[in-house]
From TrEMBL:
GO molecular function: translation release factor activity, codon specific
HAMAP family recorded: Rel_fac_2
Record-linked PANTHER family: CLASS I PEPTIDE CHAIN RELEASE FACTOR, PEPTIDE CHAIN RELEASE FACTOR 2
GO cellular component term of the entry, any: cytoplasm
PTM characteristics: Methylated by PrmC. Methylation increases the termination efficiency of RF2.
Summary of the function given for this chain in its UniProt record: Peptide chain release factor 2 directs the termination of translation in response to the peptide chain termination codons UGA and UAA.
Annotated organism of origin: Candidatus Thermofonsia Clade 3 bacterium
Lineage: Bacteria, Bacillati, Chloroflexota, Candidatus Thermofontia, Candidatus Thermofonsia Clade 3
InterPro entries recorded: PCRF, Pep_chain_release_fac_I, Pep_chain_release_fac_I_sf, PrfB
Pfam family, one: RF-1
Protein name per its UniProtKB record: Peptide chain release factor 2
Length: 370
């Protein structure tokens, strides 16, 4: 029983530390100050003279109180669990120990829900996602690696019951792909997949050279929220675009249509290139490509503004674009390791088969407390 109680005390200490982190992240102290400010305003006899403003303030206060109350409930649960553990420790009663373990388990579940709400609290986290993969250094091996990543994300989406739609697919000459753009639809698809943005590195014995030597390959993954056009506030001047058409290609490089229905659009000022070939007509592909270009430009602008704000606040700003985020080693040992969180596993086959949630959640949780 002593071992059980020691474990419960450790779990409670961990939960209390997480609650303290949430207090900082949720800015509870600032919300409590704002509640007091609004309460002082409501005591003014003229408060309801402007009913629109008054109702807006009341709604704001209700939202603030909900957040503060949720944090207070976590504190109360932690306090209850501490009392129950102490009682079990003093009495040596196994029933009391089981009740304490139940209370700790309930506290941990409530914490998980609070942390999950934070993980997906971003403006577009509940949106669908547009994911692109491009091979980097490594020749044919890199192109093959890009296709392996493509399959990995398809399998991940399948595990979650998400719908996938291939927007663009350009096969390489020997093996693998030159690039692919994929739409993944489902709740929090973007919230999860934004953790995958960056460079993925593979180390393995190459199947593409006679010596079967060890090779290192790279591929870049980019992820954007698939938001609606009316939520995009980007103006694109027609003179800033180069638009080409070509025949759609499927797996293996074969042309799937006789006419040039596929569309490639280059935004000259940024160098961003978008291609689309999944629609039936050139007009539809052009509209879809323009939508994706707007999404990418909107994301680029928002990330630029966010970096500027963080610099103004004196915070460190990572140059995220192009950063190596994860290593996949097949030889001389087997390991997948995230360079940002340190999370790792030797179950590389499962990871390449779409078992990515542990990596994603480790990253998203690290962003909560960073």
């Amino acid at each position: 029983m002593l071992e059980v109680l020691t474990s419960l005390k450790d779990r409670l200490a961990d939960a209390q530390a997480r609650i303290a982190d949430l207090r900082s992240v949720f800015e509870i102290a600032a919300k409590e100050r704002r509640i007091r400010e609004i309460e002082a305003l409501t005591s003014d006899a003229n408060f309801w003279n402007d009913p629109v403003r008054a109702q807006a303030l009341m709604r704001e206060m209700a939202t603030l109180k909900a957040s503060v109350d949720a944090h207070e409930q976590l504190l109360q649960r932690a306090s209850d669990a501490a009392v129950m553990i102490e009682l079990a420790d003093e009495s040596g009663d196994e029933t009391a120990a089981r009740d304490a373990e139940h209370e700790v388990r309930v506290l941990e579940a409530a914490l998980e829900r609070a942390e999950r709400a934070l993980m997906f609290s971003g403006k577009y986290d509940h949106a669908d996602a547009i994911l692109t993969i491009q091979p980097g250094a490594g020749g044919v091996d890199a192109q093959d690696w890009a296709e392996m990543l493509y399959r990995m994300y398809l399998r991940w989406a399948e595990r979650h019951g998400f719908k996938t739609s291939e927007i663009d697919y350009t096969p390489a000459e020997v093996a693998g792909i030159k690039n692919v753009t994929l739409q993944i639809s489902g709740d929090c698809a973007y919230g999860y997949l934004r953790s995958e943005r960056g460079v993925h590195r593979l180390v393995r014995l190459s199947p593409f050279n006679a010596g079967n030597t060890r090779e290192t390959s790279f591929a870049r993954v980019d992820v954007y929220p698939d938001i609606q056009d009316n939520d995009i506030h980007i103006e694109i001047h027609p003179n800033d675009l180069e638009i080409d058409t070509y025949r759609s290609q499927g797996a293996g490089g074969q042309n799937v249509q006789k006419n040039e229905s596929a569309v490639r659009i280059k935004h000259i000022p940024t160098g961003i290139v978008v291609t689309c070939q999944d629609q039936r007509s050139q007009m539809q592909n052009r509209e879809r490509a323009m939508h994706i270009l707007k999404v990418r430009l909107q994301e680029l602008e928002e990330r630029r503004r966010e970096a500027e704000l963080r610099q103004l606040r004196g915070e460190h700003v990572d140059a995220e674009f192009g950063n190596q985020i994860r290593n996949y080693v097949l030889h001389p040992y087997r390991l997948v390791k995230d360079t940002r969180t340190g999370y790792e596993t030797s179950q590389i086959e499962e990871v390449l088969d779409g078992d990515l949630d542990a990596f994603m959640e480790a990253y998203l949780k690290s962003r909560i407390t960073s």
